[in-house]
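ugh ok so i messed up the first submission bc i forgot one of the chains. this is the corrected input, ALL of the components this time, i swear. 499 residues overall. if the numbers dont match what u have on ur side tell me asap before i send this to the collaborators (the ones from the other lab, u know who)
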Amino acid sequence: MAAVKVSPREIAFEKLLFLIIKNNYPPHFKLPSERELSERWGLNRMTLRSAIDRLISENVLYSKGGSGTYVAEPKLVRDLHYLSSLTSQINRIDQTLRTKFLSLRIVESTKKISLKLKVPIGTPVYELIRLRIINDIPATLETIYLPKQLYPNLERFDFGNTSLYDILERNYGVTPDCGQESISVTYVTEEEATLLEINEGDPIFFITGATSDVDGSVIEYYRSLFRNDRFVLTTTSIIKEQTHE
Amino acid sequence: MNNDSGKISYKSPIYLQLREIVRNKIEDGEYLPGVVIPSENEFAEKYGINRQTVRTAIDALVHEGLLIRLQGKGVYVSGNKFEQNLDEEGGFSQNIKKKNASIRTRQISKYRRKADQYYGELFSIDQNADMFYVKNLISANSAPLSLEELYIPEYLLPNFMDSDLGVFNIREIYTFYGIEIRKVVQRIQLASLNERDYKYLGIDKKIGIIQLQNICYDSDDKVVLITDTYTRSDQCNFNVSFKRDKSSVTLELD
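and heres the new structure output, hopefully the right one now
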């Protein structure tokens, strides 16, 4: 069978990826110049440029105003199969997490919130909005709905400095245990763009989900924006040995 | 927050999100599928915001796939999106669910090539060894949904060029050859495509593309298959269930 020629752009893309992994380039390492790489690989400058652009759009590389192309910071990993608070996750990987409290108010549960929290429509629920900042760069904007009945006087806590799960566990005796979430993409409004320090209309992960306690009662429903240039969502599935008939 | 408790207890939200107001009305069934929603002028007047802000909010939901803009007619609520479950066997395209959805796979290209350095490294094979590359367009109810790329080392499936992915899925073909996929590591990111690929999917680059990469390992923990699926985010949501990570408990309490 005749070997089909792989497109030069794909060749350039793979060569760049290999260059980075093989040399184990650290974040912010400056790549050799485009001219040097295109000569080394015998590739057209435009072709190389377009592969670099793709890696920039995938946040593997970034460019700094004409001074060159650099290796981007690795993305934060969110393992979708495991519940763990961002606080504990961040502590584990030696990064700094700051939470900016934006608002807390009581709203009437809509049909959707009621469905998720398993409370009647119109039930008073807390709506907590906060911005999470990792290594001084905004990462997530979270809106969390909490049944008021479960958490009397939630207003007294400092959401800027304490993990929400810590507050819930220590003061209300609930233990987040399991849940389900849905991942989609939305496009940020002007206000969200300002808070998250990205551009209005940029796509972003929109993750909604509900978490249950060990006894099965729903303890929160969240709708969060996760900057896609800062997070990679992962799962690891172990597949059991198949039974042969 | 300071100690002036009581005064700041009931903080109002810092901004009005028309996008979320409209989303809630769709979710609550106030705006029904197939029905036109109020005009930009009506929204602007009702909420006292400018038309550009209204336009951005509506555009976001159009790009999300919750609304459809019909030129000269207005903006309508669309039906339910497809749902793909990421829990089952690492979320292969066969897991897409929607009532009455018929999923079709059309092959765009299929060829043998050298692994080269990058895939040689990933598959732990010589860079001069051959591998197969397949690119498929997956449609649901006759509308383009995703592009799928498969990377298969030649030594595992020497006769792969004769297999028909329209009849069997790649997992079944691996099983026929006695290769058990025992672990799948999945990575989900947003991707951008080249113009030709946007064309295959029937969209422009305003629509977010969800890239799902599956790295499949056999029982010896060797990479045996890599698949990349690029899905239109306006057509499909991804669902996953999670449980408490036992290892995080100790960290949280110390």
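quick check: Chain A touches chain B through 82 residues (CB under 8 Å). that seems consistent at least. Chain A has seven helices and eleven strands.
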